[in-house]
């Protein structure tokens, strides 16, 4: 086997364990939904990454990417609640962490449409994971609203961080290191 295929083959051998979100506040309501995306490093890193990537691409993408992510995540959440979930949701989430890191590290050299399509794919997996874990009771709407708001806030924070990094003299290096750390973290999710 060629060396370039060795690492992907090793990744494929391991089934990622859910890095499910520890530390929820209660089990219902807005607060629990809001905290949910903040307590899983996989979700947190991708949601910040979407904002950073949107700022890096610039122009209308600065708004399109976060809005598209939130919209598709809501659809994914509805699918997760209904039980219509594609296999390998946790693997898809781990891949999204790696891909987001690679795109940030490389400076987002793909077309805006390709990046938007990837971001929307990531959102579907993240939404499904949130929907599968959502409590089905009278507080479900508030829980759902909480994780949607937290996601949007993380995107805005990512945009702000990217703009802050761009203001630094070594902005390219900082963004590359951020992306590399994210990609390595995603790879570790696939191996765990």
From TrEMBL:
<dbReference type="InterPro" id="IPR007038">
    <property type="entry name" value="HupE_UreJ"/>
</dbReference>
<protein>
    <submittedName>
        <fullName>HupE-UreJ family metal transporter</fullName>
    </submittedName>
</protein>
<feature type="signal peptide">
    <location>
        <begin position="1"/>
        <end position="20"/>
    </location>
</feature>
<feature type="transmembrane region" description="Helical">
    <location>
        <begin position="92"/>
        <end position="110"/>
    </location>
</feature>
<keyword id="KW-0472">Membrane</keyword>
<feature type="transmembrane region" description="Helical">
    <location>
        <begin position="115"/>
        <end position="134"/>
    </location>
</feature>
<keyword id="KW-0812">Transmembrane</keyword>
<keyword id="KW-0732">Signal</keyword>
<feature type="transmembrane region" description="Helical">
    <location>
        <begin position="68"/>
        <end position="86"/>
    </location>
</feature>
<dbReference type="Pfam" id="PF04955">
    <property type="entry name" value="HupE_UreJ"/>
</dbReference>
<feature type="transmembrane region" description="Helical">
    <location>
        <begin position="140"/>
        <end position="162"/>
    </location>
</feature>
<keyword id="KW-1133">Transmembrane helix</keyword>
<feature type="transmembrane region" description="Helical">
    <location>
        <begin position="44"/>
        <end position="61"/>
    </location>
</feature>
């Amino acid at each position: 086997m060629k060396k370039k295929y060795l690492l992907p083959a090793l990744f494929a051998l391991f089934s990622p364990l859910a890095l499910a979100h520890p530390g929820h506040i209660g089990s219902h309501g807005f607060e629990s939904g809001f905290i949910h995306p903040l307590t899983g490093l996989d979700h947190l890193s991708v949601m910040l990454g979407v904002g950073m990537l949107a700022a890096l691409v610039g122009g209308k993408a600065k708004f399109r990417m976060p809005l598209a992510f939130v919209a598709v995540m809501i659809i994914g959440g509805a699918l997760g609640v209904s039980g219509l979930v594609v296999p390998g949701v946790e693997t898809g989430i781990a891949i999204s962490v790696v891909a987001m890191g690679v795109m940030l590290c490389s400076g987002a050299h793909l077309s805006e449409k390709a990046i938007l399509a990837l971001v929307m794919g990531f959102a579907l997996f993240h939404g499904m994971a949130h929907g599968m874990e959502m409590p089905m009771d009278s507080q479900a709407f508030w829980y759902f609203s909480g994780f949607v708001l937290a996601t949007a806030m993380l995107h805005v924070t990512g945009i702000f961080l990217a703009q802050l990094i761009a203001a630094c003299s070594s902005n390219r290096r900082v963004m590359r290191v951020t992306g590399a750390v994210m990609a390595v973290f995603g790879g570790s999710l696939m191996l765990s």
